[in-house]
């Protein structure tokens, strides 16, 4: 690694954010080297700080989503607090928010107002269902969006529909937001012009359902819930071994021949009249799964895994979180680092995007209001006025936090 600049060195992001979608977007920007200043409510902060106490007394969601940020606690119910927020945004390159529809406009932080005053600013807003339409003002938690967007209809087993085990709608919106911000910054380098970017959790989730949506649009068929299997591919499932199970996914007919000839030593199955092509295997899925299961049972898991790998047949093991943490792929590639938090050092995995010339930073997880005084001083507020603002409850720092205030509604 060299001392080359980080990709977003010199970029300042101000975030009015809570929960998952916007914090994930800005954490990725922080990972890439941006300075991210997170505005939080005095006394409570981002409500994700209180989801659980799993990480040495800290909330697991907050630790995951907020490393490398600075926390400034402000009372946005007060004119003085709003003025400070506006002054922060005026100095920024990017403003990201996931407040409920109309909330930032009431604060004078809506995209139209901000771009009129700061035409180079990139303003990104995340909503649940978009800035218009009949669901515009509806609450939009991850499970609800997964349901409205149809994701739950294709997730789970034939008997039971489920949401995904991770907040897919939130994550999708966060990733598209960070991508859009990067694109807007790149365009600004060429044109000098900022941008207003809108991303909805609903639209982001709909994008992920392209395959299932097109099947319905042009065949009139609902893609069924398949558990670990796949509606359009076979064999694609968990198959029993002599001492466990293995996941096998064969996506083409070459893979089928490799599986039956090189792994199972059953070349007679390659041209089986019900199994020779993927279309046939899907049409005769039960028979296909039965034939594959009969063969996989002959092997212990480790032996079968080795044979599958040698033949180039895609396969995997189902890990739980203990298996993930101990996974040799993470250890062999030196993916673990330690991140500082208000509760001490904790383990974390490097960001998924790796630059070969520079390691992306993994800054501390901030205590609520930890940077209030320093950031206000940058705005030109002198020490006496900072102390007065804290005493009046306009601003907060770790040892000066009054009782919790009503939350700013979040989409």
TrEMBL record:
Keywords: Transferase
A molecular function (GO) term: CoA-transferase activity
Stored Pfam families: CoA_transf_3
Protein name: L-carnitine dehydratase/bile acid-inducible protein F
